[in-house]
């Protein structure tokens, strides 16, 4: 039977039941061939992996994102009409808005500094509690910092709810159960609030801090010269704030890694910035975050001798690539040292997607992720705490994954950071 007429069975249930291991498992069963072919939700789907596949996937003459992101993901994680759903000049116009703040070393450094300050203010309260949940506390710390940085007013009593809403959007995008409906409610609540705030700025009733993200988004115009709709502007403001708060996942994984591998802690406690950045890279490589990203083939394509028909779903295997032994020796060993003598190349390490952040769909917030992680890793390592008995297992079936207990700590004391980490925002995520 020719490739064009070959039948492929729908494996949507396999994805639901296997989670992160689904696409890597398909690779193994295919004998690690250059492509995986299957069906999802009734549609033809192909899976790609590797640096060359990254470049192929993010070439807009091959794969488009418009119309490729399922509504449940738009309705929870990204928001309707978000930059992630655009291509071409519309995407590049919207992308410049993000790049102007997320690739500005001064802005990134200020956000990292604020995050460190909010952590330092919080740890004094943790020692007086029987125990704290690292994931929840990290989310609140980062929420306070990023809202202040972005110019979004947030009363002290609103922090917990805002943090819960922002993390719910991430936590519920890959399920159709209660987590999904919680994410939708959270997104609706945040979009309404931020749309009102943006309209208030435009009407002159609210003063946006100068050079803030709020000011930038409120004044953004589309390619036709018109102001972006207030609700859609709220979506994009959330697409700065929400992914920043999602760094809480990596902070929680850091707590897991330091408990399982305490030999890595001393270099962080000593304020070794190079080790902190290497540790951050390894967290993003080793622990499960995004399983894959998807698009739609814009025309009939060929990849390493295999046919990809126009309209097929194209999946870039992020989790599989970040654990590919061809790229990472002993890939299931947590080893920050692998990044001490080499910076990751752009299309090798892709925990938040790949491609060029300036012109393509790669997340422009990777500099922020690394800066916040380096700042908080050193502070976490300097925190005196015990890890009580708990379930620290991480299920690869759950997307997004987290340690089951979300890492419970019993804080006994803290060491205030003497190092403001001024150099953190000069670190680049790849080369």
Strand and helix layout:
Layout: H1 12-18, H2 22-29, E1 36-40, E2 43-48, H3 51-57, E3 63-64, H4 71-78, H5 88-102, H6 105-126, E4 132-133, H7 134-150, H8 159-171, H9 178-202, H10 213-218, H11 230-245, H12 247-260, H13 265-269, H14 273-286, E5 292-297, E6 301-303, E7 306-308, E8 313-317, H15 318-321, H16 366-382, E9 384-386, E10 408-413
Parallel strand pairs: 2-8
Antiparallel strand pairs: 1-2, 3-5, 4-10, 5-8, 6-7, 9-10
CATH class of the largest domain reads Mainly Alpha
Can you tell me the CATH superfamily of the largest domain? Cytochrome P450
What do the pLDDT scores average to?
87
The spatial strand order of the largest sheet comes to 1-2-8-5-3
Secondary-structure-based class equals alpha+beta
Give the helix tally: 16
């Amino acid at each position: 039977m020719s490739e064009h007429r070959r039948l492929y069975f729908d494996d949507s249930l396999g994805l639901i039941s296997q989670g992160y291991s689904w696409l890597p498992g398909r690779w193994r069963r295919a004998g690690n061939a250059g492509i995986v072919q299957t069906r999802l939700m009734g549609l033809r789907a192909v899976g790609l992996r590797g640096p060359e596949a990254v470049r192929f996937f993010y070439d807009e003459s091959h794969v488009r994102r418009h119309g490729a992101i399922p509504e449940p993901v738009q309705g929870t994680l990204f928001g309707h009409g978000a930059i992630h759903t655009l291509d071409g000049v519309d995407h590049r116009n919207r992308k410049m808005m993000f790049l102007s703040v997320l690739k500005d070393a001064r802005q990134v450094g200020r956000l990292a500094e604020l995050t460190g300050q909010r952590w330092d203010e919080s740890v004094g309260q943790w020692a007086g509690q029987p125990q704290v949940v690292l994931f929840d506390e990290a989310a609140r710390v980062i929420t306070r910092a990023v809202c202040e940085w972005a110019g979004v007013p947030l009363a002290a009593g609103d922090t917990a709810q805002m943090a819960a809403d922002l993390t719910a959007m991430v936590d519920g995008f890959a399920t159709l159960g209660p987590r999904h409906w919680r994410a939708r409610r959270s997104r609706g609540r945040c979009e309404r609030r931020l749309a009102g705030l943006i309209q208030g700025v435009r009407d002159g009733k609210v003063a946006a801090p100068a050079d803030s993200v709020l000011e930038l988004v409120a004044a953004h115009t589309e390619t036709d010269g018109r102001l972006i709709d207030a609700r859609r502007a709220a979506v994009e403001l959330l697409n700065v704030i929400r992914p920043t708060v999602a760094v809480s996942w990596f902070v929680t994984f850091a707590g897991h890694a330091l408990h399982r591998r305490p030999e890595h802690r001393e270099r962080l406690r000593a304020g070794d910035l190079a080790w902190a950045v290497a540790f951050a890279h390894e967290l993003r490589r080793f622990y499960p975050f995004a399983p894959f990203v998807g698009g739609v083939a814009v025309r009939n394509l060929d990849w390493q001798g295999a046919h990809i028909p126009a309209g097929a779903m194209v999946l870039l295997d992020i989790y599989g690539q970040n654990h590919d032994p061809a790229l990472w020796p002993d890939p299931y060993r947590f080893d920050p040292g692998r990044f001490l003598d080499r910076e990751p190349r752009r299309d090798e390490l892709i925990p938040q997607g790949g491609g060029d952040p300036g012109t393509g769909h790669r997340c422009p917030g990777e500099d922020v992720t690394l800066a916040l992680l380096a700042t908080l890793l050193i502070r976490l390592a300097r925190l005196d705490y015990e890890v009580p008995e708990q379930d620290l297992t991480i299920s690869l079936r759950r997307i997004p994954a987290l340690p089951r207990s979300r890492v419970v700590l019993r804080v006994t004391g803290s060491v205030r950071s003497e190092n403001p980490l001024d150099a953190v925002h000069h670190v680049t995520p790849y080369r």
